[in-house]
Amino acid sequence: MKLETIVHDIPPLYDAESRVLLLGSLPSPKSREAHFFYGHPRNRFWPVLAAVLGEETPETIEEKQAMCRRHHIALWDTVAKCDIAGASDTSIRNAEPNDIGRLLRESKIERIFATGGKSGELYRKLIEPKTHVPITVLPSTSPANAAWTFERLVEAYRVIL
């Protein structure tokens, strides 16, 4: 397992009206390539979110951004920098957190959700002691989480409403 040091360079998606924050762990190689969140074509995040919000699945980055803004949803990741093997969250070492406190100060975010177990674990360890805002962990929409059907994911993500 060869670890590579990754520095997160995708800016958070939020504005002053954002009320809900969805946090991944770290962008996958495909997401970093696309320079936007949940960029792997087989990741079910965008279809799940669209279903929860009653919208068509957005295709372009602009459509994804617009859908999130319409529904006051912010997106970012827990990790600013870490050592990782490929896209394997379980391999994350030496994680440094993103400045979630800044998003909280610059928005109306009241609730934070992790889009997978590792994001939730790292948030609780590295960020929650500073922000004192608890996180709710949702199941990963990654294709690696095949145990969760699309329908089960949509049902689980309804809690963001």
TrEMBL record:
UniProt key word Ubl conjugation: no
Listed EC numbers: 3.2.2.15
SUPFAM superfamilies: Uracil-DNA glycosylase-like
The species this protein was found in: Agathobaculum hominis
Record key words, sorted: Glycosidase, Hydrolase
Family annotation (NCBIfam families): hypoxanDNAglyco
Gene Ontology terms for molecular function: DNA-deoxyinosine glycosylase activity
Pfam annotation, one family: UDG
Name of the molecule in the record: DNA-deoxyinosine glycosylase
Residues of the Uracil-DNA glycosylase-like domain: 11-161
Root EC class: hydrolase
